[in-house]
Amino acid sequence: VTRAPAPETILACAEQIRAGELTSSALTESVLTRAAETEPYIRAFAYIDEDAALKAAQRADEEIRHGIDRGPLHGIPVGVKDVFCTAQMPTRAGSMTMGTWPCHGDSAAVARLADSGAIIVGKHVTHEFACGQNVPPARNAWDQRCYPGGSTAGGGPSVAVGSSLAAIGTDAGGSVRKPAALNGVVGLKPTLGMISRQGIVPPSGSMDHVGMITRTVEDAAALLEALRGREGSPSAAPGSLADADAHLKGARLGIWQGLADDGADEAVAETVATALEAFQAAGAVLCPVHIPELSMAVTAGSVIIQAEAGISHGKLLASSPGFYGEETRRYLEAGLLIPAAYLRAAYLARAEIAAAVRKAFTDLELDAIVSPTTPMTAMTVEQMNVSRDLPRYIHFTVIANLTGWPAITIPCGFADGMPVGLQIMGPPYAESRLLGLAHAYEKMTSWATIRPPLCAAGAASED
Amino acid sequence: VLTEAYVIDLAKTLGVVIPAEDMESICSMLNDLSEKMAPVVAFIDERDAPPELFTATQL
User: Taking CB atoms and an 8 Å limit, are B47 and A351 in contact across chains?
Assistant: First the structure.
């Protein structure tokens, strides 16, 4: 592994930009250079607009010179998953036929990024229509034979190698947290509805969330501040995370019992157990949580996502079936035919799960529930069987989609040379608490500073 | 088990256009789902009082 040179985070770059030590133009150029070096290996971008990015960076520099300060994202190069509508770039949502989704201007999240002064470098690769029925072209930053996670498939590798300083994505079952975990970076899925989903190519109406992938917890907090709605959601500003002791001492952390047994690989479970020991040593209290209803989570979540995706795509599917690749088309068609009795049972199972998780939190006076983010590390694409393996990857993440609760993944080590993520989930609007816990752990360890070899060595030496 | 004839009928009733070459794979997908959903349906059916679908916390 290679130690990262500074600055490589949003907040470090923002500080240098304000101090006059770095320009957005220079930063954007270096990010584009990193993309040119690494894209042949990780294929994280579906579309890059170098000219537009450099012009936007020049405008950001001009504004900063004139004393206009839009906050920590001002002049920072980021990428967006190719399901967010963008007025100036094509939105294909990973369409195997390269069709263009009918967009009407920027999505709300992209507009907020632009208002915050962020530089949108390009669109990140996604599973086709975020449905998870194909292997996307992107590859893992740590081993280019391996699955990058999805459906925000380009976001994780891109942030890991530094061809974006942050990514925004969507998460209906874990699609932000999985690629973050499998590439050794931070992924945050906030409370349902905290960030607008307006202008996003839909997979699922009630399960989908906008989230972000960053290199550090503080960067995730900065992005959340920029993207969140202002109404009723408490601040999660990076400055509020500083006191690690205050976050950890006496924190009551729930640990799933009975869920890991049939879920996590041994090497992943051991890595997460070591992380939990660190939490405990810092004063946190670990509390076993047993919720039998969670055995229904993956099935109920998968049925809801598939049925709602089918409904969302129904009209286009009928008028333009050729717009979709075969696997995705069949998945959506089947989604339209799911019997109502199954969908009803899935919705009721979701309500049972949400009630049981709320009860556990109250009864045990928990601050958060901690688990592996994914039960296994990234497998090689060659080994992968999409219908068998992709549901396994959402074993722990889908719970936060069913409940709508916020959850964050942070890197917590390696198993067989590949990154392992630790997920911290908490009750609605507890983002500040989760970010505080995650930041405290990040400060105790060096995982956030470790980069894939591809990152420092450059693409040429990887041959 | 959902037969191909049933699925064709269902698709017609709902006005869903399914290309013939997709039918076998869709039936298999729906039957797989039916198998996975059986314990979920059983769990829900055993409840005396089904829970509220959405609560204020979820919204």
Answer: no
